[in-house]
Amino acid sequence: MSRALLEPATERRRRSSTTTPNGDPSAGSGVAGPAGPPHARRADYLEFVDCSFTGRITSLQLRGAPHRAQNQYDAGLRGLARQGKPEPPGYRELVLRASNQIHGNDFAGAELIRVSFRFGVDLAAQKLPAGDDYLCLPDAETAVRRAVAALEQDSSELAGKARFFLVDVLQREIDYGQRQLFIRPKNFERSKVVPPHVLLAVELLRR
Fold first, then answer.
1. Residue 36 · residue 194 · CB < 8 Å
2. In whole angstroms, what is the distance from residue 79 CA to residue 186 CA?
3. Cβ–Cβ < 8 Å for 100, 65
4. Own/partner pairs for 37-40, CB < 8 Å, 24+ apart?
């Protein structure tokens, strides 16, 4: 992992890493995770086991499984073909594997800035930062459902935006297999201010 992501990091061990043959793995879906923007670096095939992280980690998606693996594989083959290159040994097994091993990691000493855990990362198997800046939802689906229900009788514009955030951003992550969510409201800042609808949604999720 580049030093731009971990500034500094100690006792770091990366088990496997690759980029797709057709380009930078940070390019792609444009789907924003619950912790940050769509342009975060994507760790499609990275695995972390029993690692300790310190310092600042910025703009990263850790993925419990490759997303749309067949599409990624096909796109990779097309990229290789354009370059006149054969498929690398083990590439198919890597891209089409069912899951990434991400467990036993200690993030407690790190500041996570626009970092998201997506597509089935088990947050119970990690030690995460604590404090008012962060919100961890062990049962995200129940928490989101309760927050949406709390807005049912509120027809205000603010409530509508909060409902959209809960359903279109957070519930979508759950539907993609991320049953637990780790949220930092500050990551949604606009002009250095967290939007009111995000604050409202987070307040309801904390209840």
1. no
2. 37
3. yes
4. 37/114, 40/114, 40/115, 40/116
Please give the average per-residue pLDDT across 174-189, as a whole number. 96
Decide: 144 and 205 in contact? Cβ < 8 Å. yes
Q: How many helices (H) and strands (E) does the chain have?
A: 6, 9
Q: Is residue 63 classed as helix, strand or coil in its secondary structure?
A: strand
pLDDT of residue 49 exceeding 90: yes
State the Cα angle at 42 between 127 and 16, rounded to 5°.
70
Closest among 98, 91, 99 to 74, alpha carbons compared: 91
C-alpha span between 189 and 198 (Å, rounded): 9
12 pLDDT exceeds 60?
A: no
Q: What percent of the chain has pLDDT over 90?
A: 75
120 CA to centre of own chain: 10
Percent of the chain whose predicted confidence (pLDDT) is above 70 = 80
- Find the radius of gyration of the CA atoms of the chain: 18
In whole angstroms, give the CA distance from residue 2 to residue 124: 26
DSSP-assigned states of every residue in 16-60:
B----TTS-TTSS--PPPTTS-TTSEEESS-BEES-EEEEEEEEE
The Cβ-side half-sphere exposure at 46, using a 13 Å CA radius, reads: 20
